[in-house]
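Researcher: Please predict.
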Amino acid sequence: MVIKTSKIGFGGGCHWCTEAVFQSLEGVEKVEQGFVASTKPNNDFSEAVIVHFNFRCITLPTLIEIHLLTHSSRSNHSMREKYRSAIYTFDDVQQEEVNSLMVGFQRNFNDELITKVLPFKNFESSEENFKNYYFNNPEKPFCETFINPKLKLLLQQFSGFVDPRKVVHLKN
């Protein structure tokens, strides 16, 4: 049997947070944490992840909805250069699909989504000691303060997609 995988990039908040959210999902094969750049005027690197997923287990619309709900997708704050709210696509077909999905998702929000749909251009990986940060350090104050609430949202709204082995400590 051939496994059907695809990839998509997500940026919006700290890449430790974004990495942990997508690592917690069934059907996500790999999450690359680092910095992504697009085309001008978004060609500066910004914290992001590349998510490799089995689209027979979890769909692109589900991944996008999770992304929109687990970072400030409607807030243009002062750290947007470092934490660009974006979905990075890898080809024209994916770009069209994501643009179409974003129109549909906008209907679910009262405030305007600021998340940009951008073509992926470059990636720089994080240093090794920052990768898999949450699952190596779940008791650190940063993880408890910023990542746990995102994972709890996953359990509440997307429990059918959460890998129970990865978030077992949150159920207490």
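Model: The helical segments are 15-23, 60-69, 92-106, 133-136, 141-157.
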